[in-house]
């Protein structure tokens, strides 16, 4: 996967902007530029012929040509249709800037309206307009083009970029003018909105990151700063909000103190300073700004917006100075990288303020506006990168600390286990011997009496089986290990005897050499019971005539296989072997010994029970 560092991403975006600038400055051939027009201040539906008209130079900035005017202005120009229209090529009118909305009429016919012309009017100050001129309405000479522009006086808007005005008009082939509109829309609308969306996502992520990590609250404030900046830029896509111009200006002005609060708190928190009183003042300021705008009214929007903007800029400058002083004291590598990004952002803000002196709609102004969100994105990515490194370092330190604590805990547990193990063994051994003695002396004697005195054969048989089971349990309780060769002898004697009594031919296969291995008492008891259960199944259920018991040691495991030639397990129990013939108990006993018991069977093919028991886990020194 290809990974782009923030610096590389910024370099590519800046290269793209330079390319856009080069394309935007390319001259367009075959286009008629109109820089003079008649103008009349009127709200009529058509150009007012009877009112006083005057000639203005385009671009027409209302603040210079008609200070204080707020309302529609009609413009009229006359032109001869260019010759290319005789070939059927579409002609068009390109208006780079009409603030805030326009309507176009050709030879008395209404051709185009970009949106609402009255409050709440459509805001198209940053959107270039391309109007197709129908060939049916064009004359070879003496065409009259009327343009009605609805806008606001400078006093009623917060920025001169939103004040009323009309740019130079360009007439020519539609194919030649369409790229101009596309480039203008890309540079002034599409790219800012894309960057705004990216900044909004980045800011939201950093808000969550800062909220989850309260020790790094500066991330949350930077996220607020990024979100606020993104919302200010996002206004380019909100052309038809159901708000009057004054209401929209109040909303934009209300975002300024929020962005300032986020910027100041980010700088101070990044510098390691917390000032609760300043936070309260900044919050109060967020209320005072929109309140003052509402009190001042529409005629003082520009004055109050610029006054507040100056004050808010001074607050950010003071916070920036405190941050830089702290960064100078630290002089850390990562700290300086972020400091340079912040200083670069401050310089870009200053350049952006100076760029406002440029004519509205200039390419330089658009590029400056794009540079600020790009810098915010680069700064955000750098902060996230530093935060990730800090988390990695903290995680590494945590792992080291946990390892040390774990080692100390294990050592304490081992010491405690050694101290208590002896005591537990002593108590357990005494209790086992007591239970074994009680069973042997009391219950054993009574069962033996029943065996010898009972006249009922069934009762005598049950008592004898219970006595054998009790003796096995007593042997397990004593805890003494059993030599494997002795265990094999006991198992052979019992299994062969029981099978022979029922007429089943039995064959025993086991090593004859002396074996040094031993079994724990528990392993001996559980294995004996597994073998008994298997023999019971053969006698009661299999209908077998032959049985082979094979014992062997392989790979440190004791393996016991009991195979018969009986009818096998019925089909109706296939897949449910654990529910019948004691299979579940055998498997459970094997599992308790860390071994396994497998059953292989098929109707008419007999049954094989394979027990595998790891000797090294149960062998005890004799």
How would you describe what is shown here?
With 622 residues, the protein is α+β, with helices and mostly antiparallel strands. The chain is built from 13 helices and 20 strands. It has helices at 6-24, 62-65, 174-212, 217-234, 245-270, 276-296, 301-330, 333-355, 363-453, 457-478, 484-501, 521-542, 583-592, and strands at residues 32-34, 36-41, 54-57, 60-61, 73-79, 91-95, 98-99, 101-106, 109-113, 129-133, 143-150, 165-166, 169-173, 482-483, 505-509, 518-519, 546-554, 557-564, 596-601, 607-614. It has a six-stranded antiparallel β-sheet, with no helix packed on it. Strands 15-17-18-20-19 form a five-stranded mixed β-sheet. A hairpin with a 2-residue loop joins strand 8 (101-106) and strand 9 (109-113). Helix 11 runs parallel beside helix 12. The relative contact order is 0.06. The model is unreliable at 23-27 and 617-622 (pLDDT under 50).
Properties at a glance:
alpha+beta; single chain; 13 helices; 622 residues; disordered C terminus; 5-stranded mixed β-sheet; 6-stranded antiparallel β-sheet; elongated
Secondary structure layout plus pairing:
Blueprint: H1 6-24, E1 32-34, E2 36-41, E3 54-57, E4 60-61, H2 62-65, E5 73-79, E6 91-95, E7 98-99, E8 101-106, E9 109-113, E10 129-133, E11 143-150, E12 165-166, E13 169-173, H3 174-212, H4 217-234, H5 245-270, H6 276-296, H7 301-330, H8 333-355, H9 363-453, H10 457-478, E14 482-483, H11 484-501, E15 505-509, E16 518-519, H12 521-542, E17 546-554, E18 557-564, H13 583-592, E19 596-601, E20 607-614
Parallel strand pairs: 15-17
Antiparallel strand pairs: 1-13, 2-3, 2-5, 4-12, 5-11, 6-10, 6-13, 7-12, 8-9, 8-11, 14-16, 17-18, 18-20, 19-20
Helix pairs in contact: 1-3, 1-9, 3-4, 3-9, 4-5, 4-9, 5-6, 5-7, 6-7, 7-8, 8-9, 9-10, 10-12, 11-12, 12-13
């Amino acid at each position: 996967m290809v990974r782009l560092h923030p610096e590389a991403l910024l370099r590519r975006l800046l290269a793209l902007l330079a390319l856009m600038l080069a394309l935007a400055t390319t001259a367009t051939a075959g286009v008629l530029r109109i820089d003079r027009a008649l103008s009349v201040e009127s709200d009529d539906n058509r150009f007012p012929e009877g009112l006083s008209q005057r000639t203005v130079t385009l671009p027409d900035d209302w603040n210079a040509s008609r200070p204080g005017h707020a309302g529609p202005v009609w413009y009229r120009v006359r032109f001869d249709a260019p010759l290319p229209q005789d070939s059927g090529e579409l002609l068009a009118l390109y208006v780079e800037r009409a603030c805030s909305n326009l309507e176009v009429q050709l030879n008395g016919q209404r051709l185009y309206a970009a949106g609402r012309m009255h409050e709440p009017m459509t805001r198209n100050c940053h959107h270039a307009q391309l109007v197709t001129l129908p060939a049916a309405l064009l004359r070879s000479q003496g065409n009259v083009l009327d343009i009605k522009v609805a806008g606001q006086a400078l006093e009623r808007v917060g920025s001169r970029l939103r004040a009323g005005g009309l740019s130079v008009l360009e007439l020519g082939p539609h194919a030649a003018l369409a790229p101009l509109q596309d480039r203008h829309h890309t540079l002034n609308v599409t790219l800012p909105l894309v960057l705004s969306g990216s900044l909004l996502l980045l800011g939201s992520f950093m808000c969550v990151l800062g909220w989850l990590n309260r020790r790094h609250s500066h991330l949350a404030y930077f996220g607020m700063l990024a979100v606020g900046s993104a919302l200010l830029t996002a206004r380019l896509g909100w052309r038809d909000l159901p708000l009057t111009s004054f209401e929209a200006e109040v909303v934009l002005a209300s975002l300024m103190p929020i962005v300032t609060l986020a910027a100041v708190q980010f700088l101070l928190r990044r510098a390691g300073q917390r000032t609760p009183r300043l936070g309260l003042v900044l919050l109060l300021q967020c209320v005072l700004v929109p309140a003052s705008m509402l009190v001042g009214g529409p005629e003082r929007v520009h004055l109050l917006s610029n006054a507040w903007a100056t004050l808010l800029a001074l607050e950010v400058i003071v916070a920036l100075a405190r941050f830089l002083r702290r960064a100078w004291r630290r002089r850390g590598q990562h700290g300086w990288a972020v400091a340079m990004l912040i200083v670069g952002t401050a310089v870009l803000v200053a350049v952006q303020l100076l760029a406002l002196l440029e004519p509205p709609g200039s390419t330089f102004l658009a590029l400056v506006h794009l540079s600020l969100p790009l810098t915010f994105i680069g700064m955000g990515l750098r902060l996230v990168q530093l935060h990730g490194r800090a988390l990695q370092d903290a995680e590494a330190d945590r792992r080291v600390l946990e390892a040390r604590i774990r080692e100390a805990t294990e050592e304490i547990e081992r010491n405690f286990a050694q101290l208590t193990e002896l005591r537990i063994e002593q108590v357990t051994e005494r209790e086992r011997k007591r239970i074994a003695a009680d069973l042997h002396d009391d219950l054993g004697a009574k069962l033996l009496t029943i065996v010898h005195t009972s006249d009922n054969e069934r009762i005598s048989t049950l008592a004898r089986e219970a006595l054998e089971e009790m003796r096995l349990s007593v042997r397990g309780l004593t805890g003494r290990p059993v030599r494997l060769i002795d265990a094999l002898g006991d198992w052979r004697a019992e299994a062969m005897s029981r099978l022979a009594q029922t007429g089943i031919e039995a064959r025993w296969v086991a090593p004859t050499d002396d074996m040094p291995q031993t079994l724990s008492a528990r392993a001996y008891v559980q294995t004996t019971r597994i073998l008994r259960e298997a023999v019971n199944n053969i006698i009661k259920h299999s209908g077998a005539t032959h049985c082979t018991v094979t014992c062997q040691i392989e790979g440190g495991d004791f393996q016991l296989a009991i195979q018969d030639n009986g009818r096998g397990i019925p089909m109706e129990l296939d897949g449910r072997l654990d529910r019948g013939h004691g299979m579940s108990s055998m498997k459970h006993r094997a599992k308790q010994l860390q071994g396994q018991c497998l059953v292989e069977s098929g109707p008419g093919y007999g049954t094989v029970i394979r027990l595998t028991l790891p000797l090294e886990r149960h062998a005890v020194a004799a």
